[in-house]
Every structure is written in structure tokens, then in C-alpha cells.
Write a structure and sequence with these properties.
Helix content is 59%, strand content 6%. It is α/β, with parallel strands linked by helices and 1016 residues long. The protein folds into 5 domains: 1-41 and 57-225, Orthogonal Bundle (Arc Repressor Mutant, subunit A); 333-479, P-loop containing nucleotide triphosphate hydrolases (Rossmann fold); 485-564, no CATH class; 579-784, no CATH class; 852-920, Tetratricopeptide repeat domain (Serine Threonine Protein Phosphatase 5, Tetratricopeptide repeat, Alpha Horseshoe). The strands form 5 sheets. A 5-stranded parallel sheet has the order 8-9-10-7-11, sandwiched between helices. It has a 3-stranded antiparallel sheet with strand order 1-2-3, with no helix packed on it. Strands 4-6-5 form a 3-stranded antiparallel sheet. Helix 1 packs across helix 2 (100-108). The radius of gyration is 37 Å and the shape is globular.
Length: 1016
């Protein structure tokens, strides 16, 4: 990291004035340097503070922007520019004293005014009154600021940078990046803004250079941690502002290359080489040339961010008195380390107790035995082991186990007492002074194992159980999860053989995925395959692909996944068993507490108690507070139990119907809160169950995006004739998810499935609405031909339904604008406006008005376009529609841009951008950045245009390849204006390939641009 600049010491003259306090005027001041020979003055007597007065709050100062001072929350008056120059000169000396002559030099340089010394005294006196007592002091013939540590923003920034340097040196790049961002965040514009004088000018230059060094370091860290796409926009702007700074060019090349933009990365080098030759007559530095060569060679190491080196797995120790460890033990390195470290503490005189919990088949015993062998050297006096059979109906009794342990420790049968308490006491006495490891496998609960725990230091107990030992005092609890995909494939390969797996790697991945990465299931599947030499891995994968048969296939000899789960299920109380069965029916990746309460038709508190008891039994996982999930194979088992045990059988359909009602009612509440006055919610199917209600928009949006996957899974699961209408309406109520890059594909898939179900059930109303939702999806993706076809079909199926009757022609008119069919656009948008007005749907009317503004804009009717957009904005504003108001401001910003009113256009688009960002709409963030780039380009501000275009690309939510092509076109124009010709050519080349692939008319315009730069 570049060094943090410190303000250099200034030479102090042998003698100088004692600032402040003297009321005499020295007649020898005159001009030039005569003021340096005055006699020092007496320091003023300190004022007495009243007794018991509270200590004043510290004064804080800023120099990384305007020079300001605060005390508490109150801004203090720092006076005139020259007075601030004196203050800044003192602040930048880190508490050291500055003489009056040094301050005069700092404020006025070589030509001070005749009354310079008097002015310095006046400024000092005024500052002393404005600041807290004791902050500005007079000493040693000068002045100093005594404000304490961390009261100056520059000092805070320097400390943050120093800590960042240490964090980076230790390998913690994320922490270093965070600290540098905090340091950069302390800047508030130009340092020492508007402060006059040569000293301030020198320090301003120094601080700006340091700021740029910090920015380079932060960008370097961005690339090291993989944030290359996000860094491109900032680097593009910085290279335009500092064209000869080669380090920035190097970082930009690397960021572009890691973002898959190799041609642009090479173009940056070409631009740089030409610029350096023209401006300085030199070649790029060797580091830049070496980077270009690595990019040309597609160096694989160059494409990867820096990653920490993996830790070495601990060595496996040969077993002794413990059960044999499996020879193909695989993975679990972090758990082995964690448990091994815990057991090792017993050697230091601490009794260690670790309890492993997890579902059946997750490998608790295998891991515990392996760890026990590895820790054997810490327990030279022996290791005890017992299977407590806690998962079965006849768990081992503690007194029986104690008898066996006492015999193993050398106690004669005649000396073993009869009662549990006496045996436990003798057991603890026998262990006293020994270093013993006790492995208590398959425990039922904490009460079963308490008598079996050693009571002395130097010993340790390792416990495995399906139940979490939350009531075992002092225990180190470990929740064991399934294997990672890499570990699972390694285990499968060890059993089956590298040759067979290597020949069918993809099929092997399918097998371990079907096993849910559960060690027992993988071992069974691999053992079956190893025993059948005529089977291929693909044959096994095909057998496991059938979910209804999967559990039956996962058995070999006396091993069976289903039997393992059956042990846990058989111990559940009736209410627990019902919850376990019914919650497994939902298709989502997890389920919230509120949704689970709807499935079970139980109060939330009772539902939480049931679910937490299932978590403690390791049949359910707590994904996060208030959220629960099944392991894939456990879910299949729960569904099998529901089919077998749920009575009456119709209760399964009722449970899923209650879940659909919950999601629909809640999504409708979110939609209504997000779009006050929008009539869509009034036309949705009624629900038999209430959903959640929200008072804050942010809370409602949090719910929608958190529940996105579960909500969409519920919609596509609800495809029977009785549910399909509500499923379609759920998608309409949650259509914000289609505008979120993270959920777009899943939303589209669910819409296709629900549409197919509506057609199968011949539900015309549901089909019309499903096609309306699909129209919206295709429009967002920029697939206009498909959107047009769906909109046409939706309108034909409307039959008086206001949803397809209004929303479909609105989108159809919007598409017609893009395809330059302006008369059709006016017709469809006019129909949409009429239908929305007939329904009293004012917000949607505003949407159609804004779209009609786009049509007028395309036809050159700029005045009416601005007026229509203003009508839309006015409706949105009156309705209090924050998010939709952003759409209106977006349309108005476009119209104002074409009208040449760039200032107003920027204001509208900037406000729209903030709203889209706040409402987590990456698609609209992207297109708004694109429009801002167009405004800046039209206003001849290419650096800002390039920055906004890069941010549009980095968001990756700009709505399909067509929109990406349009952004690349504008980015190329901005780069061309900045003189980065080769990079602009690379952008246009990529845009042309996109438009030609789509058959878009924009290809001709891009060809013309390329022809222009080629000719030049």
C-alpha cells in the first residue's frame, strides 16, 4: 500500500512572537519580514471554571473538504477564509506548535500585508473564542491545536489506512478494502476547499494525490476479492480524468479481462500506448506490456482473483481401542480441526465435552470415530466407546454402560455397585488422574449421558446424537451438515473407482446430488454400483432420478436411508409427526414460520414450538431465525409419510391450498402497499386465509424478496384445476419479482408452467391472465416478438377481464414504440388508457400516459411528449406511488432530454435512479443509468456518460442482450469522445454482434459508427 502522507515539519525560527495577549501595536511591523522580530507576549491567565461543571464535548475538525469545526451536533463558526487558513495550518501540524512567522508564510506566502502579525493575532483570538477552552493554546512563541486523538478527519483517515495496510499484509483483503472505503468516505469534496494561501495549495495537492493513491489501492483490492465488474465504471472515469496514470489503465485492463471483455482490455492498452507516444514520446511501462501479453495468451491465473491458501487437513492417526475408522474417510476437514482442537484442551487440564448433532446418515459416528483416533495421543490412558442406541426403542441404560466402563477400566465385578449414583461416583473416582477419551455414540438425550461424563480434568467426552444437547451444561455443540459437492464426489470415487467415475463425471455428480450429499446415501449408492460391474454410472443416475423410487433405491444389505429416517420419525409425538409430514409437501427451498403456520392451520407460537422440537430431533434444519428447511431425502421421506399416514388424504391438498392462500393474500398486501390505487388487487381471487399485513414499504419488499423462491415454487406447484386461478393471480401480485435480476428466470419458468396448467384445465380467465404475466416477462427481457404474441393472445381472451384488457394493450403499445410502429402504438395505448379509466385504475392510466409520451417522443412531437409524461408524474405523485413515480420521472427525463432541457432531465432521472435503487429494481437501475449516460453524452460530458454506461453493464439487470447492445453503443460513443478509440471500437463490435444475432435494425447504426472510426 502506498505510504500515508504526513505534513512535513516546518523550520522554526530562533525567536518569534508569543501569539495573542499583547494589546500593544509594534511600530516596527512595517512591510516584508519585519514582523518576525517582535518580543514574545505573556500568555493569558487561564480562566477559572465553576465547580462541578460538566466536561465539554470534544471539538471535531474536518480538512478533507471544507475546513469546519463541530462541538457535539453544533457547527462552530470558523470565520473568514484567512482565518480558516490559519486553522488549517495548525490542524495539519498534528498538535505541534507553529510560530507566527510560519503562519504568516502559510497564509500569505512571500508578500504578506503590512498588518499580517496583527491579523494573525486577531484570527487566533477569534478562533479561541469560537472553540472550547484549551483547544487553541499559546506556547513557545506560537500557537497549537490541542484537540485530542481522532478529532481530525485526516488523522482518522490515516489510522484507517494504516490498519488497512496491516490487514492486507496479514491476508485479510476484505477487511483492508472495508477500511480503505471508510477512509475514502471521509472526503467531502476538495480538501481545504476555498482556503487561500500557498500552504493550503501545497497541502491540497498532497491530499488529492493521497486520495488517488488510496483509490488505486482500493480498486486493486476490489479486483483481488473478485469485484471486477463493479470496478469498471469507476476505473473508466478515473482513466479519463487521469489519462497518463498507467496504474489505473492496468487495473482497468485487468477488470475488463476478468469480466469477459478481452477485446476492450486489449483496446485499453492500444489507447494507452498511442496516448503515451503522442504526449510523452515513451512506451508503456513493462508491467502494462506484460499484462497485455498475459491477456493475449488468455492466462488462466490472470482470470482468477487472489484466494487464501487452503489449510492442510490434520493427519489421520491409526485406531487402537476405538472402533475402526473407515478407510475411505473423506472431507470434513473443518469439523476435524474444530473437534480436534477442542479435545486437545483436555491435555491442558480442562475437561472437554463436544456433542455432535445431525440427521440420521449424516456421518456423525464416522466423524466422531475418526476424530477420536486423531486425538488418541492426547489421551494415553485409553479411550472408551459405547453405542447408546438412542435412536431406537430400547436405548441403553446408563447403569449398564457404567458397569461395562468400570470393567474396562480394571474394576472387578465384585467391586461394581448396584445403583446408578454409586456406579457414577466410582466411575469418576476411577478416572481421577487419568487422561481418558469417552466416545458416547448415538445418544438419546442429555439425561442419558450425564452420568457417563468424566468428572475430572484431563479427560474428554465426545457425544453423537440426533438431538441437539442444548441442555447439556458446558458442552461444545456442533451441528453436522451434509457434505459439500466436492467431498461427496470424492467419497463416491473412493468406493466406485476413479476410472469409472472419471469416464462419467457428470452422471456421478447427478448421483451424489440425488443423494442430497448425505454420506450414508452416497455410501449405499456407491456400494450398489461397485457390486454391479455391468452397470454404468448413468444407469444408477437414471434410477435415482425418479423421486418416488429414490428412497427405495438407496438401500444395500443392512444399510437403508429410509430405515434410518424411520427411527427418528417413530419417536415423534402425534402433533410433531403431523407437522413433519405436512410441511414436507411444500416445494420451496425452505419455509417461514408464518407460512408453516398456514400449512398446519395452527397459531404461530404453537407452530414454532413444533418446528423447534423437530429441529432438536434433527428432522428439520433451522436455516435462519424464523426459517426452516428439510434435507432433500428427508423431504422425500416426509412426503412418503404424508401419503401413507395422513388421514383423511384430502388434508394434503388442504394444507397446500392454505399455503397458496397465505402467499396470495400477503403478496396482494405488498402490491397494494407498493401501488396505492392500483386496481389489480381488487380483481384477484379471494382467499380463505388472511396473509401478513405491513405498515412500511421496506418491510413489505423485504418479505417479497425473501420469500421469492418459496412463493414461486408454491405457484408452480399449484397447477390443479382448483388452484390454477389463484396461482396465476399470485404471479400477477408478485410481478415485481420479474423485474429483479435474481428472480427473473425462476419467475418466467413458473409463469410458463402455470399457463400450461390453465390451458389443460380450459380456464380461459386464468389463461388470459397468465399470458398477461408472460407478456410482462418477455417485455422486460427485451424479447419483443414473443411479448407481442402473448399480448395479442391475452387481449383475445380478456372477455371483460380488466387485467388483460388493460395491461396487455399497454405493453403492446410500448413494444410498438420500440418497433417504430407508431400508429399502432397510439391505438393500443389509447385502448389501454380507456380501459384503465373505465376501471378507475389511475396508476395504470399514468403508466399508459408515460408510454404514450414515448410514442410521441419517437414521432418528434416533443412538446406533447413532455406534457403526457408530466400528466403521468402528476397522477403518480397524487397517488403516493413512490416506485411507479420513478417510472414516470424516467419517462419525463427522456422527453426532457430530447427537448434539450438537460438540467431538468438529469434531475428527473437522478430522482428515478434513487427510487429504483431503494426498491431493489436492478433492471430499472440499469436502464436509468443508460438514460443518464445519454443525457451526459448529449451535454458533452463523456466521462460521466461512460461512468453511467459502465454502471448499467455492471448491474447485469439491464433486460436482455438487446438492451446490453444499446448500452455498449452509448459507452462506445463516450469512449470515442474521450479519445479511447480502440476501446470504443471493441464496444461497438460487441454491440454489432448482438444486434446482428437478434436481427435488430440498430445494427445499421452501429456499422456506421464502426465505419467512421475505421476511416479515421
Amino acid at each position: 500500500m502506498d505510504g500515508v502522507p504526513r505534513v512535513p515539519e516546518q523550520r522554526t525560527p530562533a525567536s518569534g512572537p508569543q501569539p495573542d495577549g499583547d494589546t500593544r501595536h509594534d511600530n516596527q511591523q512595517g512591510k516584508g519580514r519585519q514582523h518576525r522580530h517582535h518580543e514574545p507576549e505573556a500568555a493569558p491567565e487561564p480562566a477559572r471554571e465553576p465547580e462541578a461543571a460538566p466536561e465539554p464535548e470534544a471539538v471535531r475538525f474536518t480538512v478533507l473538504g471544507p475546513v469546519r469545526a463541530w462541538c457535539g451536533g453544533e457547527s462552530l463558526n470558523t470565520g473568514s477564509p484567512q482565518q480558516r487558513a490559519l486553522l488549517s495550518a495548525l490542524l495539519l501540524r498534528d498538535g505541534r506548535t507553529a510560530t507566527a512567522s510560519e503562519l504568516i508564510d502559510a497564509i500569505w506566502g512571500e508578500e504578506p500585508p503590512s498588518q499580517a502579525l496583527a491579523a494573525v493575532r486577531t484570527y487566533a483570538s477569534r478562533l479561541r473564542k469560537a472553540l472550547n477552552p484549551g483547544v487553541l493554546v499559546s506556547e513557545s512563541g506560537g500557537y497549537a491545536i490541542r484537540a485530542g486523538a481522532d478529532t481530525l478527519d485526516l488523522t482518522v483517515a490515516q489510522d484507517l489506512a494504516a490498519h488497512a495496510e496491516k490487514a492486507r499484509a496479514s491476508g485479510d483483503r476484505c477487511q483492508a478494502r472495508t477500511l480503505i472505503n471508510k477512509a475514502l468516505g471521509l472526503w467531502d469534496g476538495e480538501p481545504l476547499a476555498s482556503v487561500p494561501g500557498p500552504y493550503a495549495e501545497n497541502q491540497r495537492t498532497r491530499l488529492e494525490e493521497w486520495r488517488l493513491q488510496l483509490t488505486e489501492t482500493r480498486l486493486d483490492l476490489d479486483l483481488e476479492v473478485g469485484c471486477h465488474a463493479e470496478a469498471i465504471a469507476e476505473l473508466t472515469a478515473l482513466t479519463a480524468a487521469h489519462p497518463l496514470r498507467e496504474r489505473l489503465r492496468e487495473l482497468l485492463m485487468l477488470a475488463l479481462y476478468r469480466s469477459g471483455r478481452q477485446a476492450e482490455a486489449l483496446a485499453v492498452y492500444a489507447d494507452t500506448r498511442r496516448l503515451l507516444a503522442d504526449e510523452l514520446g515513451v512506451d508503456p511501462r513493462p508491467e502494462l506490456s506484460h499484462l497485455q501479453q498475459r491477456i493475449l495468451e488468455a492466462d488462466a491465473d490472470l482470470a482468477r482473483p487472489v484466494e487464501p491458501a487452503p489449510s492442510a487437513a490434520p493427519a489421520v492417526v491409526r485406531p487402537a481401542q476405538l472402533p475402526a475408522t473407515v478407510p475411505d474417510f473423506t472431507g470434513r476437514a473443518s469439523f476435524v480441526r474444530e473437534l480436534g482442537d477442542r479435545l486437545a484442551t483436555a491435555e491442558a487440564g480442562v475437561m472437554a465435552v463436544s456433542a455432535l448433532a445431525g440427521i440420521g446418515g449424516v456421518g456423525k459416528t464416522t466423524l466422531a470415530v475418526h476424530v477420536a483416533h486423531a486425538a488418541r495421543s492426547h489421551f494415553p490412558d485409553g479411550q472408551l466407546y459405547v453405542d447408546l442406541q438412542g435412536a431406537g426403542s430400547r436405548a441403553a441404560e446408563p447403569e449398564t454402560v457404567l458397569g461395562a466402563f468400570l470393567r474396562a477400566l480394571g474394576t472387578p465385578d465384585t467391586a461394581i455397585p448396584d445403583t446408578l449414583d454409586e456406579r457414577a461416583a466410582l466411575y469418576r473416582s476411577t478416572l481421577d488422574g487419568r487422561r481418558i477419551l469417552v466416545l458416547l455414540d448415538n445418544a438419546r438425550d442429555a439425561s442419558q449421558i450425564r452420568p457417563l461424563l468424566p468428572g475430572t480434568t484431563g479427560c474428554a467426552a465426545l457425544v453423537t446424537s440426533r438431538a441437539r444437547m442444548v441442555d447439556l451444561a458446558g458442552a461444545h455443540l456442533v451441528d453436522l451438515d451434509v457434505m459439500s459437492p466436492e467431498e461427496a464426489l470424492q467419497l463416491f470415487t473412493k468406493i466406485v473407482g476413479a476410472e469409472r467415475v472419471g469416464a462419467e463425471r457428470e452422471a456421478a455428480l447427478d448421483v451424489v446430488g440425488a443423494c442430497g450429499f448425505l454420506p450414508l446415501a452416497i455410501r449405499i449408492a456407491a456400494s450398489r454400483l461397485a457390486a454391479r460391474r455391468t452397470w454404468t454410472v448413468s444407469v444408477l443416475a437414471a434410477k435415482l432420478a425418479d423421486e418416488r423410487r429414490r428412497l427405495d433405491e438407496l438401500q444395500a444389505g443392512d444399510l437403508a436411508v429410509k430405515a434410518t429416517f424411520e427411527l427418528g420419525y417413530g419417536q415423534l409425538e402425534p402433533a410433531q409427526a403431523r407437522a413433519f409430514r405436512l410441511l414436507g409437501l411444500a416445494d420451496g427451498p425452505d419455509i417461514s414460520l408464518a407460512a408453516a403456520a398456514a400449512v398446519l392451520n395452527q397459531p404461530v407460537q404453537d407452530t414454532e414450538d413444533l418446528l423447534e422440537s423437530l429441529v432438536d430431533a434433527s428432522l428439520l434444519e433451522s436455516a435462519a431465525p424464523g426459517r426452516y428447511r428439510y434435507h432433500d431425502l428427508v423431504r422425500l421421506y416426509a412426503r412418503a409419510c404424508a401419503e401413507r399416514d395422513e388421514q383423511p388424504p384430502v388434508e394434503r391438498e388442504r394444507a397446500l391450498s392454505r399455503l397458496l392462500d397465505f402467499y396470495l393474500a400477503t403478496a396482494a398486501a405488498v402490491y397494494a402497499l407498493e401501488r396505492p390505487g392500483d386496481r389489480l388487487v381488487a380483481h384477484l381471487e379471494p382467499t380463505g386465509r388472511a396473509g401478513l399485513q405491513f405498515t412500511e414499504r421496506s418491510e413489505a419488499l423485504d418479505w417479497l424478496h425473501t420469500e421469492a423462491e418459496c412463493l414461486l415454487a408454491c405457484a408452480q406447484q399449484s397447477t390443479d384445476a382448483a388452484s390454477v386461478q389463484r396461482a396465476v393471480d399470485l404471479l400477477l401480485a408478485a410481478k415485481d419479482l420479474s423485474e429483479s435480476g435474481a428472480n427473473f428466470r425462476r419467475y418466467e419458468h413458473a409463469t410458463h408452467l402455470v399457463l400450461a396448467a390453465a390451458r389443460r384445465s380450459k380456464n380461459v380467465r386464468a389463461e388470459g391472465r397468465a399470458r398477461t404475466a408472460l407478456t410482462h416477462v418477455f417485455h422486460i427481457a427485451g424479447r419483443f416478438d414473443q411479448a407481442e404474441a402473448e399480448a395479442e393472445a391475452a387481449m383475445a381472451l380478456a372477455h371483460g377481464d380488466p387485467i388483460p384488457g388493460g395491461y396487455a394493450p399497454n405493453i403492446r403499445g410500448f413494444i410498438a414504440v420500440y418497433q417504430k410502429r407508431y400508429s399502432e402504438a397510439e391505438k393500443y395505448l389509447g385502448l389501454a388508457i380507456d380501459n384503465f379509466r373505465a376501471d378507475g385504475n389511475r396508476p395504470s392510466e399514468a403508466s399508459a400516459l408515460c408510454n404514450l409520451s414515448r410514442a410521441h417522443l419517437a414521432m418528434g412531437r416533443t412538446t406533447s411528449a413532455v406534457e403526457l409524461a408530466k400528466q403521468g408524474v402528476d397522477i403518480y405523485d397524487k397517488q403516493g406511488l413512490t416506485l411507479r413515480l420513478a417510472n414516470g420521472r424516467y419517462a419525463l427525463g427522456m422527453a426532457l432530454t430530447q427537448a434539450g432541457q438537460f438540467g431538468e432531465a438529469l434531475e428527473q432521472l437522478t430522482q428515478a435512479l434513487g427510487i429504483f435503487h431503494e426498491n431493489r429494481q436492478p433492471l430499472w437501475e440499469g436502464v436509468t443509468h443508460f438514460r443518464l449516460a445519454e443525457v451526459h453524452l448529449a451535454a458533452r460530458r463523456p466521462t460521466l456518460a461512460a461512468a453511467h454506461a459502465e454502471q448499467a453493464i455492471a448491474l447485469r439487470g439491464i433486460g436482455g442482450e438487446w438492451r446490453r447492445g444499446t448500452v455498449l453503443t452509448v459507452l462506445g460513443r463516450a469512449l470515442d469522445h474521450l479519445g479511447q478509440v480502440d476501446r470504443s471500437r471493441a464496444c461497438w463490435g460487441e454491440a454489432l454482434a448482438i444486434f446482428e444475432g437478434l436481427g435488430s435494425p440498430e445494427a445499421a447504426d452501429v456499422r456506421s459508427l464502426l465505419a467512421t472510426v475505421t476511416a479515421a
